[in-house]
Amino acid sequence: MENLANEALRNINHYENLVNIEKEEELKEFEEFVKKYTPQEREKLFRAITNLKAKKYPKKYEYHIVKFEKRKKDENIKNIFSPGDVVVVSSGNPLSKEVQKGTIYKVGKNYILVLFEEEPKPWIFSKKNLTLDLYPDDVTFKRWLEALEDVKNRKDLYFLFLDKKIKKEDKDEKLLKLELINKNLNIYQQKAVKKALLSKDFFLIHGPPGTGKTTTLVEIILQLFKLGKKILVTADSNTAVDNLLERVSKYLKNNLVRVGHLSKVSQKLEKFFIFHLLEKDEEYRKIR
Questions:
Q1: Nearest-CA neighbor of 119 among 96, 132, 106, 102?
Q2: Whose CA is closest to 17, among 174, 144, 153, 192?
Q3: How far, CA to CA in Å, does 57 sit from each of 77, 105, 224?
Q4: d(CA 214, CA 258)
Q5: DSSP class of residue 171?
Q6: Tens digits of per-residue pLDDT, 243-281?
């Protein structure tokens, strides 16, 4: 077993190295791009917005908001950036020391709202011609590395990083008394729900689009909730998370919390957003 543990750790370290290489390459590509093109040229390539002025906007939850407007009102910037994009504010040189990173919250015809987790720097409001450059999203890399680091302390997950298959015994389906919440599940969906609930660690549901995988996942979540389990739902996109949350919320009105960045949460699901719930909490308001 010690040899297997060492092999798993070697593989984890290898993946960490690969993530760091990819991160460094993206930053290098950004630096080379900025050095090669002027702010105006970057704007023509839809990678920057120039000639902006900034003013403070009302704070929302824990986020500071700055409104960036084109100095010429007739310039349309609506199709350049999208909510959730990471940007860096500068006077035209995003490689200088006088910069600050933020996230696009909302895009209008000739303005952009940017969220900042820290207080915006004073120079942002005193400069006359600001530039927003699209910046590599290093948050993803940070989370990958944190996850890999955490796995090093989870020996029960080492098998994920081994080439060898470890045989696992699942409980007998007959031992599970399942009362479906969604009575419309077909036989294959019901079977998937049972197997998922009985699996010890991981269970994969695979199938073409439109075969009911999301409906099955909703049922699994609801069944786990009935069993008193704490459930963390993740997906490879915020849209997918919001889709699941919307479906689950049809059955559960409480006990649902949407975590993530405000810019990436659907506005109709904002009532489940963690900071929205905190602001409604009486104890939180007392200590804030």
A1: 102
A2: 144
A3: 19, 12, 42
A4: 18
A5: P
A6: 999 999 999 988 899 998 898 898 899 999 998 988 887
What domains can be seen in the chain, in order of their start residue?
37-136 (2.40.30.270), 169-287 (no CATH)
Q: What is the pLDDT of residue 288?
A: 64
The per-residue pLDDT for range 58-72, each reduced to its tens digit, is 999 889 999 999 887
Is the CB of residue 215 less than 8 Å from the CB of residue 186?
Answer: no
Query: Quick count: other Cβ atoms within 10 Å of Cβ 14?
Result: 12
Residue carrying the six token digits 């709202």: 113
C-alpha 94/C-alpha 70 separation (Å) is 18
d(C-alpha 46, C-alpha 93), whole Å: 16
Confidence of residue 163 (pLDDT cuts 50, 70, 90): confident
Mean pLDDT taken over the chain:
88
| Buried/exposed code over 41-58 (b: 16+ C-beta within 10 A; e: otherwise) | ebbeeebbbbbbbbeebe
Q: Where are the alpha helices (DSSP H) in 57-129?
A: 123-126
Query: How far is 225 from 190, CA to CA, in rounded Å?
Result: 17
Backbone phi, psi, residue 187, to 5°: -60, -35
State the pTM of this model. Answer: 0.73
Q: Are 82 and 105 in contact (CB under 8 A)?
A: no
Distance from C-alpha of 66 to C-alpha of 8, rounded to nearest angstrom: 46
Q: How far apart are CA 117 and CA 80, in angstroms?
A: 23
Which pLDDT belongs to residue 166? 53
* Residues 92-130 pLDDT 10s: 999 999 999 999 999 988 899 999 999 999 999 998 899
Please name the residues in contact with 212: beta carbons below 8 A apart, sequence gap of 6 or more. Answer: 185, 186, 189
Q: How many residues does the chain have?
A: 288
The rounded Cα 56 to chain-centroid distance in angstroms is 26
